[in-house]
Amino acid sequence: MTDTKRFFTDCLLTWNRLHNSRSMPWKGEKNPYKIWLSEIILQQTRVEQGWPYYERFITNYPVVEKLAAAPEEEVFRLWQGLGYYARCKNMLAAAREIAGKHKGAFPNTYEGITSLKGVGAYTAAAIASFAFNLPHAVLDGNVYRVLARFFGIDTPTDTTAGKKLFTQLAQEVLAKDQPATYNQAIMDFGAVVCKPQQPLCTACPLASRCEAHQKGLTDLVPVKSKKLVIKKRFFHYLLLEQQDHVYIRKRTEKDIWQNLHEFILLETPAPANDTDLLQSPACRRLLGKHRYRIVGSTAEIKQQLTHQTIHARFIRLSVGAAFPAPDGFQPVATTQLKKYAFPKIIVDYLQR
Ligand code: SF4
């Protein structure tokens, strides 16, 4: 290791020992099940948001066998609001594999861990190092940022070349004799000192040799080659009310919110008012010649996802007892809706 790389590693370990007071419920945890659970919950999720979910999951499923035996609907309901529901589905599949094929014993090699559904390179390195003290460097957004700034690297992090370069560098500067401590240290350092905005350079122990700080490049690295394109989608949910029931279905398409429930959805390419919507061919096909009454409709409710903005409206329609069930939908008593897992935007609407 070069002198600069050794300085980097030693500084981070010293900072961690003397100044790192960042606390998280799973910090220092050695149980691979709990570490895995926390890492799956934290993928694409802020620590403050994931924290209560982690505690709820650990309380409900203290061991992997409990999670593996839980009904899918119950687990999805507990996950409700976290987004990225494929994570939840993969998590349950992995729990069932550990409880079944591995008889409850968590895989204890890097290869074994990566073979689990939903576990990528970052999560595998985190579990391998935190639970089994194996020398695998984690590489998440915080680590990319600290490495890019300190070593002054402007290779885009989202390219094959960038991923390879950062993976090699991260592995090189890892303190191989204490991988768990080092991995936690660099992630915490990125979260509290070398932050995305306004890093604390004047108080930073790495400042004297930090390329980005020395050259005034802290706002320019790390670099990404692709700009995130955010798509707008316009959802109109029809709550077809028949006496005290409403129609819902489970989303099965390869789209957002797979496996969650929803009301009848009409998606339009642009905003639409009630009149436009009720006269659209899709709505006329659904309602046919049956009589209905508009009970009420909401203004637009927005939900921001990583790649999409959802603009949703809810329209309540009352129909008579003779109205036939729409294809693929089931009538559910309104008092029983809380038993089903819905996307956050519907949960927010129902809570209002
Ligand atoms: S000096 Fe600033 S940019 Fe460099 S590592 Fe420290 S906090 Fe990050």
Automatic annotation (TrEMBL):
Pfam families: HHH, HhH-GPD, NUDIX_4. Its cofactor is [4Fe-4S] cluster. This is Adenine DNA glycosylase. One of its GO terms (molecular function) is 8-oxo-7,8-dihydroguanine DNA N-glycosylase activity. The keyword Hydrolase applies. SUPFAM superfamilies: DNA-glycosylase (SSF48150), Nudix (SSF55811). It catalyses: Hydrolyzes free adenine bases from 7,8-dihydro-8-oxoguanine:adenine mismatched double-stranded DNA, leaving an apurinic site. It is an enzyme of class 3 (hydrolase). SMART domains: ENDO3c, FES. The keyword rRNA processing does not apply. Its EC number is 3.2.2.31. Adenine glycosylase active on G-A mispairs. MutY also corrects error-prone DNA synthesis past GO lesions which are due to the oxidatively damaged form of guanine: 7,8-dihydro-8-oxoguanine (8-oxo-dGTP). Binds 1 [4Fe-4S] cluster. One of its GO terms (biological process) is mismatch repair. Residues 41-192 form the HhH-GPD domain. It comes from Chitinophaga cymbidii. Keywords: 4Fe-4S, DNA damage, DNA repair, Glycosidase, Hydrolase, Iron, Iron-sulfur, Metal-binding. Belongs to the Nth/MutY family. It comes from the Bacteria. Gene3D superfamilies: Helix-hairpin-Helix base-excision DNA repair enzymes (C-terminal), Hypothetical protein, domain 2, Nucleoside Triphosphate Pyrophosphohydrolase.
